[in-house]
Structure formats: C-alpha cells, structure tokens
Amino acid sequence: MKKWKCSQAEEEEGDVVEIVTTIGDRDVVDEGHFTSESAQILIGEIMGCNRDLENIKQNINDVQNKMKNIIDVLGRV
Predict the structure, then answer these.
(1) 8: left (phi over 0), alpha (psi -120 to 50) or beta
(2) What's the angle, vertex CA 66, arms to CA 61 and CA 72, rounded to 5?
(3) What is the pLDDT of residues 20-44, one digit of tens each?
(4) Counting Cβ atoms within 10 Å, is residue 38 exposed (0-12), middle (13-18) or buried (19+)?
(5) From CA 27, how far away is CA 17, in angstroms rounded?
(6) Is the pLDDT of residue 49 over 90?
(7) Phi-psi region of 14 (alpha: psi -120 to 50; beta: other; left: phi over 0)
(8) What local confidence, expressed as pLDDT, does residue 11 receive?
(9) Which residues is 48 bridged to in the sheet?
(10) Rounded Cα–Cα distance for residues 63 and 15 (Å)
C-alpha cells in the first residue's frame, strides 16, 4: 500500500511540502529528515510509474489499432 501526503498549498512559491510514503510496511521518508536512500526509493517509484504509464499507452495504441482493423473489415462487408 502506498500513501502520499502533502501539506497545505503546494502551488505557493516557497512553501515546504512534506511527502510521506509507505511501500509495504516500510516508511520511506522519516519525519524530520530526508536521506539519499529515501530519494533513491522515491526515484525508483517514479521510474516504476513511468514504466507502467508507457505500458498503458502501448496497450491503448494496440487496442486502437485493433478497433481500426475491425472497422475496416466491417466497412468492406
């Protein structure tokens, strides 16, 4: 289970945003400090999300192509 929590208005310049995330039962960002290990874990999470999005995009493209082929076949009937 992953939990993301940001404090107050992130949009305002100069605001400090607290990010707390949990991967499984492990807290990634301890209250009070942010380590290189924490950053690496979050970067890994971002990379995993990016990979998942790319896979979803490819699946959407595949389905769209399949639908176009079906429509083409139906148009010839």
Answers:
(1) left
(2) 125
(3) 555 555 555 556 677 888 899 999 9
(4) middle
(5) 17
(6) yes
(7) left
(8) 41
(9) none
(10) 43
